[in-house]
Structures are given as C-alpha cells and as structure tokens.
Amino acid sequence: MRVYAPGLMLHELAERLRALDMTERMSAVTTLxxxxxxxxxxxxxxxxxxxxxxxxxxxxxxxxxxxxxxxGAVLVGAPLRGPATLGVILVIGLLTRLLLLGAAPSLxxxxxxxxxxxxxxxxxxxxxxxAPVAPEVARLRDATIYxxxxxxxxxxVYPPLAQAFFRAVYWCAPDSILAMKLxxxxxxxxxxLALICLLRTLGLPPGRLAIYAWNPLLLxxxxxxxxxxxxxxxxxxxAALASARGRDGIAAMLLGLGTLVKLYPAALLLLLPGRRxxxxxxxxxxxxxxxTFATAGIGQWPxxxxxxxxxxxxxxxxxxxxxxxxxxxxxxxxxVWALLVALRxxxxxxxxxxxxxxxxxxxxxANVFPWYVVWLVPFLAVAPSVPWxxxxxxxxxxxxxxxxxxxxxxxxxxxxEVTPLALGAVGMVCGTLRWRPRARARADxx
Length: 446
Prior knowledge:
Blueprint: H1 8-18, H2 22-48, H3 56-77, H4 83-101, H5 110-122, H6 160-172, H7 177-201, H8 209-213, H9 216-224, H10 229-244, H11 248-259, H12 278-295, H13 303-312, H14 319-323, H15 327-343, H16 350-364, H17 377-382, H18 386-394, H19 411-445
C-alpha cells in the first residue's frame, strides 16, 4: 500500500495533467466549471435559508454537497494553467460570494456586534467602556441589532484597528448589516488578488486559486456570516506576497496591521526570512504603536475582555483543552508550538512554512470556531495539504451543535472533525516508519 504525504497526491496529479493535450485540457476546464456550478447551487440554497440555526441538517447537507464539489474542483483544477482556468475560477468565485452576500447571519451573529460597537462610538461613547446591557447605552438599544448580540453582558474584545474599521463602515451606512458584510467581502477580494499575485510570483499554476476562491468554509464564514477575519486574510496574504518578493520589512508592517485586527497574525513574524534583522521588528512594532495611538490610544486595548473571552468561552475546544480544561494551558501550548515551528530549519517561503504554524495554532487553541480556520486557506493554495484542506470541510460539523436541545456538539461530529488530521498524522508516521528501514539498508550497503 502506498502512503501519500500531505500534498503528494496533488503533485502527482499535476504531473499527469501536464502531459494532457489541448483537447484533454479543455475537458478538464469543463469539468472544473461543472463542479463550480454545483458549488453555486449549494451556495444558493444556503444563502436563501433565513435561519441556518433553525435548519442545521439542511445546512450540513448542502455544505457537504458544496465541499464535495469543491474537492472535485481542486483535484481537477489545482494543477491547471492558462487564462481559461483562471477565468472559470474567478467567475464561479464571484458568483458564490454574491449568492451568500444577502444571507442573514445566523450561524454566528458577530457582525451585529461590529455594528453595535460602531453605533456606540457614533453616539460619542467609548465602546470599550460599556457592555451592551449597561444603563449608559440603554438609549441605543433597538429591535434589530441589540437582540442579536451574543454575550451582551461582556465588554467588546475587538482591537483598535477593528473598531476603526467598524466606525468607517458605520459612517458610510449606519446600522446596516449588509454594508458591513459587503465591506468585509471587498477586503476579502483584496486577499484573493494578493494570492493571485503570490501564485504568479512563486511560479505556481493559477488553478491553485480554486483551493482558496472556492473553499466553502471561507465562503460561508466571510460572505455568509460576515466575519472580521476577512481583514486578517488580506493582511497575511499580502504579507506572504511581500515576503516572497524579498520585502520582509513591508511584510512585517502588514502583519502588524493584522495584529491590530486580531492578535494571532503576530505569530507569522517568526517565520519571515529576515526576522533576524532588527529593522523587521522595528517596522512591526512601529505599526502596532502608531496604529494603536491613531485609532484608540494605548490604554484602550481590551486586555481584560480578551482574558475573559479566553477563560469563559467554551465551544469546540482544541486539542489541549479537550483533555485538560485549562484555556491558559492551551495558549501556552500554542506559544510553544509557534516557537518550535519557527526554530525548525526548513526551506521555503513564508506561505509554505505558515501551513504547519497556522494549523498547529488552530488545533491547539482554546476554542476551534470554524471561522478561526479561514486564515489557513490562502497558505494551502501555495502548499496544498490533503489533510488540512479536508479539515476546512469537516470543521463545519461543529455546527451540529444546533442539532439538539440543549445545544452541544455530538461525539460523532467531533470524530468527523478530527478524522482528516488523524489520518494525516497516521500517514506521516507510516511514511516515516517505511523510510527508516530503507535508509538503514542504504547505510548498511555502504
């Protein structure tokens, strides 16, 4: 039995597709387009459902259909080159996004908190100072935004640049969930443009864009639910592009911007080829300081609310917390993992080295919310890994949480979630065990 290392299957498929003649290549593009139409149909159904929480079985069925179409598209399209391939990927990618744009966020209502924070700031109040239930903001409550807020007794956890983004969108379109989703979607398109440039810089086939542009998890979480992680996607993908072009100082500044939105992009600073240069750290720190002062001030970082979020939030716990319910231990394990990956001598660009770094941070984290996985996807387009790509599909089964009352993720769904990573780990171990006797035999023969 042959054991495939992560990404080897796609590599061998690419070698076979390079040998195809023009007719066969066009047939592959046609198959790619067919898979894209199935993906569009599934996204159309999901985008038309008024409340996915009330229809979790329907969501899981059509998400699975979307993911099967996506998997077929990746297998056929990822190795392809040429303008026809890129055109099909872009057209289908835009259609799927438009189909989900108008959907009411229901699986997660975080986008309502974005609008609420901007409303508080727009009223001349400090969004960090008052929880939504505070009497000081009682006059701002309404029947549309306020009832959809999760954790209304908690203070906001979003860093300064995120708050500035909320206010900018609110200034353009007050109290509009659609406007907030559209703004985040447009930012996500910047990430896709940066990825196209990155693939070209690295000499990789444009068909790899399908791994990112058609990923159902990304589509649902960014364009369906409107998650802030779109800003992270744009900054980390642009940072990977800058680093690939030898501009690690610019990459560091982009990672600084990402850190001002969510904290975890800072870990990628450890993977920059030029991280040993003092200037890289100065650029990163300067962006953090200037961004903080320009948007809120150093005293406005929501450190206490973030600490409460890490301590009290409990949904789909990561690997460490599944065995020992200590969220701070999970964070410590994540920090150790980041250092180990950074210190491990391994050639490759930031995007290539980011896959094990980001993947480990996700599964070791205190909670594995499905949208936390999204920032891994652009790196998978550069360094495809079958287990990790599959995980972007299975992690959505965390939403089986809504199948029963009281809400809880059933054991079968947890097993579905971890299956790709478990099989990937077994494959790596088997590959190692198979290689060692051969290496020993060569040594003995010498």
